[in-house]
Amino acid sequence: MTTRSSLSARLGAAGPALAAVWLLLGASTGISAQTRVEPAEFRCPAVLGVGVDTGKIYCDVLIGEEVADGIIVVIPPHEGPAVVTFTLHGRHTYSEDEVARGRGYARYLASTVVATTEVVLSRPMVLAEFRSEADLADRVSGGAGPGGVKAVAPLAGEGIRITVADDVTEISIVGIELDVQRSDGRETVSSAGRAIAVISDVQVEYRAR
């Protein structure tokens, strides 16, 4: 059973075409004669951008009702189980003015699901708080702010580890719900298409066939 009944009912359905970007990050690094650990190939429906400090690519996690709505991670042909790892970050819109006025605090609890077209593998969550600029994990280039950065930035993240069977060729990371607590009140976000979190550092560990 999934958190959203519509996701469970439509796991095998093909979603609408996405304006997607295929990202292949770097070359593989072998840690033994059999096992490889390498940046994963994935399709990101909403690229947040590149980190100014780290050079990492950040991808928004959107709320969806189908597997096809999520971030699709490709699993290379493999023998035995493979492991996908990534960092799930809180997502904050930074305002220097709000911080100066003492209204910058925000607490985010984002709920997601990792699934194949047949089964839910995991339900990762991330809890992140913002009090000052020091709580931002990175700034993202390509915005209109000082230094050319975007207002939206990733917060501290949780390391997520997903094990998949040898017949799995791809998995999807889909947003479910976001609970936000600010100084002026609380909000729950569950509308399809809304960005509720950010991922980075997507890697896959596997034994090649």
Explain what you see.
- The protein has 209 residues and is mainly β.
- It has one domain (5-208).
- It contains two helices and 15 strands.
- It has helices spanning 5-9, 96-100, and strands spanning 21-24, 29-30, 35-39, 41-44, 47-50, 57-62, 71-74, 78-93, 106-115, 120-122, 125-130, 152-164, 170-182, 185-189, 195-208.
- Strand 13 and strand 14 form a beta hairpin.
- It starts with a helix and ends with a strand.
- The relative contact order is 0.28.
- The model is unreliable at 1-5 and 10-33 (pLDDT under 50).
List the helices and strands and how they pair.
Elements: H1 5-9, E1 21-24, E2 29-30, E3 35-39, E4 41-44, E5 47-50, E6 57-62, E7 71-74, E8 78-93, H2 96-100, E9 106-115, E10 120-122, E11 125-130, E12 152-164, E13 170-182, E14 185-189, E15 195-208
In short:
It contains two helices and 15 strands. The chain has 209 residues and is mainly β.
Instruction: Compute the CA-based radius of gyration.
Output: 18 Å
Estimate percent helicity. under 10%
Structural class: mainly beta
Structurally, the number of domains stands at 1
Shape: globular
Write down how many β-strands occur, each being a DSSP E stretch of 2 or more residues.
15
Low-confidence stretches: 1-5, 10-33
Strand content: over 45%
**What is the chains' assembly state?**
single chain
Q: Give average pLDDT, whole number.
A: 87
For the biggest sheet, the summary is: 8 strands, antiparallel
Number of helical elements: 2
Compute the separation of the termini in Å: 32 Å
**Helix and strand succession?**
HEEEEEEEEHEEEEEEE
